[in-house]
Structures are given as C-alpha cells and as structure tokens.
UniProtKB/TrEMBL annotation:
Record-annotated Transcription elongation factor GreA/GreB C-terminal domain positions: 83-150
UniProt keyword list: Kinase, Transferase
Molecular functions per Gene Ontology: DNA binding; kinase activity; RNA polymerase binding
Keyword Cell cycle (UniProt): no
Region (Disordered), start-end ranges: 1-24
InterPro entries noted in UniProt: GreA/GreB_C_sf, Tscrpt_elong_fac_GreA/B_C, Tscrpt_elong_fac_GreA/B_fam
Transmembrane segments: none
The name this protein goes by in its record: Nucleoside-diphosphate kinase
Domain of life where this protein originates: Bacteria
Gene Ontology BP terms: DNA-templated transcription elongation; regulation of DNA-templated transcription elongation
Gene3D superfamilies: Transcription elongation factor, GreA/GreB, C-terminal domain
Ranges annotated as biased composition (Basic and acidic residues): 1-18
Taxonomic source organism: Allosphingosinicella ginsenosidimutans
SUPFAM superfamilies per UniProt: FKBP-like
Amino acid sequence: MSVAFRRESDEEHKEPRFELPIPPGPNLVTERGLALIAAEVARLETAVAAEADEASREALRRDLRYWTTRQTTAEIAPPPTPGEAGIGSSVRIRLGGAERTIAIVGGDEADPAADRIAFSAPLARALIGAEAGERVDFNGTAEAIEVLEVMP
C-alpha cells in the first residue's frame, strides 16, 4: 500500500489547541474584577478535579492556565480622582441624544451588554479623565459625548 493512503492515527489530523491569548498591556482590575477572577479560578480548579474525560479535563486546564495568569498579573487600579472618570467609576453620559450610564472596568469583567466597558475600549478611553459638564470627542466627532455625572 502506498504511504499516501496510510494514516497512523486521527491525532495527526486534529486542529491544534492553542493557549487563550492574554491581552497586551497592564491587567488593571477593580476590586470586583479581582473577586470575579478568583471565583473563576476556584470554579475551574473544582471542575478539573471532577472531570473524568481527559479531553474535557485538558480544555478546563487550558482555561485554568489563562485565569491563573490573569489572577497573578492583576493590579488593582488606583482610585480615580474624585469627580473625574476613571477605572472603577460610573459615568452618566448623553451620546447621540440618548442617556446611558457606563461603568469603566478591567478587561476581564467587561460586559458591554450591561454597560460595563473595559478601560481599553474606545468609549472608555474617551471618557477617562472627563468631569461632569464636559463634552468629549468620540469616534471622530468633536464633542460627541456630554458627561452628565461621574460617580465613584
């Protein structure tokens, strides 16, 4: 039989499983974010110990490596200056005629659907340092966002 038709195993044809990518830059978190990371590490450690299937256990270990790294590298963000938007603050804004309240958080606790945005997101970067009553540029538009209130 020709070597071209021989297959040693199915393993050689599986897609490689890469590590989960770690976002570049500092891993700034809020107190809440650090607690969420710790809870995820604990959940994954329990799941790895309980999993009987080796493939599933390896996938859980991969996730655990990611979250353990995030926990190890986490830095609590310094509190923002009172009255100034920063990591850990909530900002009530008017954008495009609609009001919304945005919480600026660390990357791992971001949930845009719940208006919790990572400090590295364009909207958060536009808001950081702003104070109530200011208008800030966003998305190429001058004074697109009106900052109505900054809360700790």
